[in-house]
Amino acid sequence: MTVTPNVVDAVNGHGASQGAGRGGERVPAPLDVVARLRAAISDKLAAAGTMSDTERDQAIALFIAQEIDTNARADISQGRAPLSPHVEAAVARALRDSFTGLGALQRLVDDPHVEDIFVNGCDNVWVRTIDNQRLRAAPVAASDDDLIDLIQIAAARSGQEERRFDRGSPSLSLRLPGGQRLFAVMAVAKRPSLSIRRNTLNRVTLDDLLERGELSPALRALIAAMVRSRKNIVFCGGTGIGKTTLLRAAAYEIDPLERIVTVEDAFELGLDEDLDAHPNATALQQREPNLEGVGGIDMATMVKWGLRMRPDRVIVGEARGAEALQMLFAMSQGNDGSMCTIHASNAKQALLRLGMYVMAAPERLTFDAANMLIGQAVDFVVFLDVATDGTRVVSSVLQVLETTGEQVPSNEIYRPGPDRRARPGSPMRTDTLDDLVAAGFDPSLLHQDRW
Fold first, then answer.
1. Both 353 and 438 in a single domain?
2. Which tens digit of pLDDT belongs to each residue from 102-121?
3. Region Disordered: which residues (predicted)?
4. What is the DSSP string of 75-125?
């Protein structure tokens, strides 16, 4: 893969943004100029008073042009060389991004080849590309204080409930307008830091993942049949492995007429935004406490609320606390076909983690009771890993069996091969296989070892 120019410029440049120069090369915008003009424009916006969104956008465009012109006149009058047209264009873009986007971060967020963005202070910036390159990027703010301001502005623009980012609330998790997921911290770290996870595949299907080599033809058919036959599925794997992407792809196998409720700590799945595929979907997000430390609503409560909305399926973006218990209750009490993701280093560890979360919930289930609930609720665990060639792949599939409580038995119907890709393993229970066949699955595929 040829790295996109935006990323190359981020590595080699020194400015807040980039503009095209002669021959197509990118020109950095001076951070000090951007910061100074931004302050002047902010003063003008404050003096202008309340405006509609359209009026504000028009005012921003006007004020940017005015301040760039004023800056050029000041340079000439004081004997300095004015900015070149290409640098002025870069400054204008940086200013637009600072008022309507994410400032200098916006060029990275917009870059289709960037998957993750890591900021460890204003001038220590890294990106990870979709082909797993890790590259140093240019500074994204003139100072750490400016970086904090940028994050606070992003929180204010999120359009969600109140999202603080200050010493009293030093962490922030939110979904950006483009669907990217941002997490930031301050005060608890030496410097303000953030990470942005880009959804490089927003409307992704199982066929897309098959084409990318993340699924075999047999696994593509199997997961589709699991969803159509209303099996409860847990997708697991490490950080950034593609659990949410696979869950989102699997959800496209759900009948559009079914009612779906999703529960997340920060909106990321976006199923409710695709009205063609999921016209009857509601997305719920946990709420942080307000300035007085009250009003917070956790995911466990959100799952309970979601069940009152009479869904056909409940989808939990990531189970990592007491919400796991409520999710398992939903799976075992009539909301068949529900799904979730969980962090785990292998499929069996996912079951252990579920048990730990359940036992840590306020209901304090015993070890045996937790295992019995998992055995009754979960039908399949799908584990994702990185193959030896660097491709993200499905590596293992467990069929979960009912238990008497001492442990959660399972059949590994697909197990990792030498390259970590899933290979045919133990046979599936006949009654479960019958359900999959009724949903259109060809049982001969279970013996196929072809990627």
1. yes
2. 888 888 998 988 989 999 99
3. 1-27, 408-429
4. HHHTTPPPPPHHHHHHHHHHHHHHHHS-GGGHHHHT-TTEEEEEEESTT-E
